[in-house]
């Protein structure tokens, strides 16, 4: 054997190191799912997940972090600035701001996440089965989704709230009814790209029912985009709830939500023109809302990048 064949170049040595690293990653203890590896290597996604969990723990464990109620009045302490007794001050009715932020966060998160999950369940179910079957029902649902998406969503929501009335349950149902078309079209487009694949043709040749093909074999191929869409829809619905509350069309004012707390800027009576002076009544809640929405968006962006096969890394 000659010296030229025995001697390795710098490129060969570098390729050998890469091969060894790949083998250690695939065969060693560090073997993990590619999507999970990419997600955990995304610093913004990890920070977003931690922030999301911290805020959820604070809100759903509110009795552990405050001794006050979100609705208890104390007119002797109304419009009090932050102090040792009330760490974020009180509002115009003497209610503790910190307690209202924590308890109100529960409602806002439930409205946002519940609406996103409901819209995903309805839209993906219809998109998978009807998109796979095609025919008249598919054409009808496409036209219905076109009508829903041709109207500005906020305008449609306000009209529906005015018709059915204000309540948390009604708002969740309205968000689901206005949010399903996007999920439906996403699932349908994925199914249309998969239904002509060879594995689907083989399943059909073996006599597998359309329902089983759609929900057992096609559904796993749509879970990545669906999870990403759920995270981003959650953030969108929370912001919409806050905007509706400021406009007076959200959850009833007697229920603490992040939107109703911020609503004090426009509907606060004594502070209508002095919102900078009484900053503690709206600024901490606004910061909490912004942080939570950013956290969800960071997680959603990380999931999208991690589940995208075109992204190398």
Q: In words, what does this structure look like?
A:
The protein has 313 residues and is mainly α. Helices cover 70% and strands 0% of the residues. The protein contains 15 helices and no strands. It has helices spanning 3-6, 10-27, 34-41, 43-60, 62-65, 97-133, 136-150, 153-164, 168-194, 198-205, 210-218, 223-247, 258-262, 264-267, 283-307. α4 (43-60) packs across α15. The longest helix has 37 residues, at 97-133. Residues 1-5 and 26-32 have low confidence and may be disordered.
Give the gist of this structure.
This protein has 313 residues and is mostly helical.
Task: Walk me through the topology.
Layout: H1 3-6, H2 10-27, H3 34-41, H4 43-60, H5 62-65, H6 97-133, H7 136-150, H8 153-164, H9 168-194, H10 198-205, H11 210-218, H12 223-247, H13 258-262, H14 264-267, H15 283-307
